[in-house]
Amino acid sequence: MTSANAQIRLAAHPVGLPQPSDWDYTEQPAPQPGPGEFLVRVEYLSLDPAMRSWISGRHTYIEPVALGDVMRAGGIGRIVASQHPDHQVGEIVSGRFGAQRYTLCRDGEVTKVDTALAPAPTHLAALGIAGLTAYFGLFDVGRLEPGQTVVVSGAAGAVGSIAGQIARITGCRVIGIAGGPAKCATLVDELGFDAAIDYKAGDVRARLREHAPDGVDLFFDNVGGAILDDVLTCLATGARVVISGAIAQYNATQQAPGPSNYLQLLTKRASMTGFVIFDYADRYPEAMTRLAEWISTGELVSFEHLVQGDIKDFPETLLTLFRGGNTGKLILALPQDQ
Known about the structure:
This protein is α/β, with parallel strands linked by helices. The chain has nine helices and 15 strands.
């Protein structure tokens, strides 16, 4: 017997940092599967910076979450009832489940999760969208090559921590930019970055020139804003700037100015390219195979920041991203026995 279906719904489009009034917490009877359907109890929810753009009310690369709708979120859960012959009770699956405790699914809407390969949360981190974003952003967009100097902003986050490790595995010199000495120590001591720059300490540009005296060959940017401007002044000839995200600007209440140092792209014959990970969906298996190999050999560490809570904790947990409170992939871990 399933319990009530707790849900977080979008009540208003946030202005600036999301507020409690921007969300509604609701409870409804848990749905029951009909023919060809199965019911998933969500146990892990992925929290991502991109969620801020999804609730802005503006169409970007994906339809915005409509007012009154359950908040869009990827997750991992367990099948607790099924009327589908290929999906059995107890099976662990991932999918776009939304910020809710239960969700009805059909075949083709989920992916089976192999917990023998890695624990379930890792399938939302290094083996999830974060790992895929780092992989294709580096190799396809950034044209990563061994021996180059790679800089990663937001390097202690979900995507950045993986991107830096992939660059290191590939044989590059890797410099991470993160907030605070603890995060910087993690990058160097635990993830194998060659150097880390604490942007909160100031003078990012001077530190970059110290650690990359010959210039930056590839900049994997998750932050935007002033850090992007600083790195543009330190590019090597032929550099590539990969725009993966811009978390520094997501909650801005005014239009952010463009980078003032963009002419460095001209003088350094450099390029700056954005990308959307969903464009690579048909090649996910390729990336997953390599990511899984690196995890199995211990070359790649998947950092997950698990917050134990309930569905009602989703709005406050999401703010952790914008306060810089997470190291690695932020995941809301829900009770597994309810």
